């Protein structure tokens, strides 16, 4: 159930309608007094009568910030004006407008108090007004009902508009969250494609080139290179099928599981690079890693090796992965002549992103005698994005 909107303080100056309304009713009240012919049951117009005629409407300036105070003030002016023996004129209008406001912006408590104040104002007018007031009671009842009913309808309309705006805001927020999740998933799949298939294609290309060059002199090595290309190609197809099942899962198939390498798989990765003719040294000292951390270590080493064989043709590559307390440190160093003309690609960006998603950090850049990739990752689970 949507409750009535609370009385939020607002400066009356922010509502020009209230200022114009108060001024118009004040002018109308004073004009009515001045135009009323002398005689009758009422006292002659004095400065006090004009003061009361102005004081009642001016209370509307605060009807939005203090509706109950405005209701009490305008109702009191009506009763006081009647007790002083002056004609009512337009003085009851501010009281009805204040009652409307209480029903428009107030809850049950505010409405109940407003009704009691209005009833006391009506009783004071009926008790002190000169002459007979019974003929005016039907009009008073009608004004009372109109003020309360219209105020309640306005409140319901405001609540409905606020609820609709809230639902629209929630819908936009949910759409933004869904879009953000979609972009994150696209980024993850793009990294998987780049790191897995990109690495495999690069290695297959290098192995094919080596096999072609030594095919005549060393047929055995060429056959070994072709066998390695075949294995790498099958692994790439398996990885591609896994990613495709993630994107378009079949109802009858079991959900595809993400690639879950271990540190032991680094040896196979290094052997694949050695088949391209490069010297690779691997040292590992890891005893406990979560699946997420192990996958991040594998992908970072994989991308670092891919960049090494892609951008340099010779030089030893050293891979070191060790666990120290709650952290795992990995370092891939490629002995080469650093180039200042290297254009940054997606590889370094993906490695840094993988490290960040695990709650770690990665540095990559030229060092003395080569190029180094250094990362520090927590052993625990990945941090949420």
Characterization of this structure:
- A 5-stranded mixed beta sheet has the order 1-2-3-5-4.
- The protein contains 10 helices and 5 strands.
- The chain has helices at residues 16-35, 47-58, 67-83, 92-105, 108-128, 137-214, 219-247, 265-274, 291-311, 346-357, and strands spanning 280-285, 317-324, 327-335, 361-367, 370-378.
- The radius of gyration is 42 Å and the shape is rod-shaped.
- By secondary structure, the protein is α+β, with helices and mostly antiparallel strands.
- The longest helix has 78 residues, at 137-214.
- It folds into 2 domains: 12-131, no CATH class; 181-378, Heat Shock Protein 90.
- Helix 6 (137-214) runs antiparallel to helix 7.
- Strand 4 (361-367) and strand 5 (370-378) form a beta hairpin.
Topology at a glance:
Blueprint: H1 16-35, H2 47-58, H3 67-83, H4 92-105, H5 108-128, H6 137-214, H7 219-247, H8 265-274, E1 280-285, H9 291-311, E2 317-324, E3 327-335, H10 346-357, E4 361-367, E5 370-378
Parallel strand pairs: 1-2
Antiparallel strand pairs: 2-3, 3-5, 4-5
Helix pairs in contact: 1-2, 2-3, 3-4, 3-5, 4-5, 4-6, 6-7, 6-9, 8-9, 9-10
């Amino acid at each position: 159930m949507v409750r009535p909107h609370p009385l939020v303080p607002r400066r009356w100056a922010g509502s020009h309608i209230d200022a114009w309304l108060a001024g118009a009713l004040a002018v109308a009240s004073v004009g009515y007094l001045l135009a009323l012919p002398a005689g009758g049951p009422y006292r002659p117009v004095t400065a006090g009568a004009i003061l009361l005629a102005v004081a009642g409407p001016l209370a509307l300036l605060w009807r939005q910030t203090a509706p109950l105070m405005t209701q009490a003030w305008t109702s009191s002016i009506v009763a006081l004006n009647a007790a002083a023996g002056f004609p009512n004129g337009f003085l009851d209008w501010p009281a009805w407008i204040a009652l409307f406001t209480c029903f428009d912006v107030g809850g049950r408590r505010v409405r109940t108090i407003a009704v009691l104040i209005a009833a006391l104002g009506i009783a004071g007018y009926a008790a002190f007004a000169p002459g007979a007031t019974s003929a005016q009671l039907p009009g008073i009842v009608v004004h009372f009902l109109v003020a309360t009913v219209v105020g309640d309808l306005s409140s319901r309309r405001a609540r409905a508009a606020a609820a609709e705006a809230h639902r629209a805001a929630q819908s936009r927020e949910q759409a933004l969250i869904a879009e953000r999740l979609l972009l994150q998933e696209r980024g993850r799949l793009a990294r998987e494609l780049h790191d897995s298939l990109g690495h495999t294609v690069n290695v297959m290309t290098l192995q094919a080139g080596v096999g072609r060059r030594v095919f005549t002199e060393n047929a055995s090595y060429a056959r070994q290179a072709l066998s390695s290309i075949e294995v790498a190609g099958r692994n790439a197809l398996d990885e591609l099928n896994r990613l495709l099942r993630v994107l378009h899962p079949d109802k009858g198939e079991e959900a595809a599981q993400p690639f879950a390498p271990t540190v032991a798989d680094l040896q196979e990765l290094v052997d694949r690079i050695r088949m391209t003719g490069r010297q690779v040294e691997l040292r590992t000292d890891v005893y406990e890693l979560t699946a997420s951390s192990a996958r991040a270590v594998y992908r970072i080493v994989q991308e670092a090796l891919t960049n090494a064989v892609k951008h340099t043709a010779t030089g030893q590559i050293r891979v070191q992965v060790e666990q120290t307390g709650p952290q795992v440190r990995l370092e891939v160093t490629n002995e080469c002549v650093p180039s200042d003309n290297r254009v940054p690609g997606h590889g370094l960006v993906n490695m840094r992103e993988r490290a960040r998603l695990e709650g770690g950090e990665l540095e990559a850049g030229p060092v003395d005698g080569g190029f180094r990739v250094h990362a520090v990752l927590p052993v625990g689970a990945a941090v949420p994005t």
